Amino acid sequence: MASGLARRFGSNKLLADFGGRPLLFRALEVTATPALAARVVVTRSAKVKALCDAQAVPCLLHSLPGRNDTVRLGLEALLEQCPNLAGCIFLPGDQPLLQRETLEALITAFAQTQKETERAIFRLGARAADGPDTVVGSPVLFGCGYFPALRTLPEGKGGSVVLKAHPEQVQIVYAQRREELLDADTPEVLEELSAIAAQWCVT
């Protein structure tokens, strides 16, 4: 998902420098796994589209305003590629510390639900730094039973509507490090995440 307006960031954050390359590249690298049947970037930015084209990553350029539009367009594009999708992951493009192994763990957990797959929802979580509480975030994986709801979300709303409607179905997959859930909302945060990535040797 790369359709955000980045108002807090002040410019298109996905084009900002992260380790000498556009931030978007981290999301492309994390999703470059055979565990995924297909992937598509959904964006309002022609520059993001050009970067994706250069990397041979499918990208859908659009001009619709709502988060619901991003979800619907992305899901429909995936279903065109793979009509029999068992589930769909929504992954923001601004979580540069997310690891491919973590994404694959999410997919593995989903695959192990067997008969319950259609009604399964998995989301990434982490233990809070100052206690036993769980911090939840993205990405989120929805079983195909939720596709109709995701394609008809209320105006301006995202997948959280479905999460709130079915809390009993949501299961947490824990990231190894809670920093994987952090997103780059401001240039200052991106700088902090870049420093952490350097310590982790994330490239």
From TrEMBL:
SUPFAM superfamilies: Nucleotide-diphospho-sugar transferases. Transmembrane segments: none annotated. Pfam families: NTP_transf_3 (PF12804). Gene3D superfamilies: Spore Coat Polysaccharide Biosynthesis Protein SpsA, Chain A. It comes from the Bacteria. InterPro entries: MobA-like_NTP_Trfase, Nucleotide-diphossugar_trans. GO terms for molecular function: nucleotidyltransferase activity. Residues 2-168 form the MobA-like NTP transferase domain. This is MobA-like NTP transferase domain-containing protein.
